[in-house]
Amino acid sequence: MRPCYRERLCLALGALAAGILIFVLLAFGVLALAPETGAAQLFFTAGAVFSLLGGLTLAWGVLCGKRTPALSYAWACWGRTAAAGALGGVLTAMGAFLAASRVLVHLGAAAWVFFLVLELGGLLGLAGTYAAVRFRCCCKDTCG
Asked: CA within 20 to 30 Å of 118's CA: 69, 74, 86, 128, which one?
């Protein structure tokens, strides 16, 4: 089994690029998100709920899964990345919900998008790695 450092680094860089893109689009007025509007409050409330649901999905999947080498390898590879994305997304959305400054709202939206990409990429990586390792172990009898 190969380590997945390169994939996690690519995911983190992609998430950073998505966050920077959102911040630039908000800063130049292509996208609009002002703290005094209800749209910002709705955006961050939905963001916190979405991140929380992703974290609960992660917890449910890991706790209900069989304790196999495939699950431990998938968790070691992607689980902490998905958990960090979920926790960061919830905390960022809650913090940005309370922000009164336009710049802080824009930074909060960019940070939330960063954590969202990190969470979704971690969840997809966890599921893909688990399935690949589980298939290889079941069909080729190479795992203990």
From this structure: 69
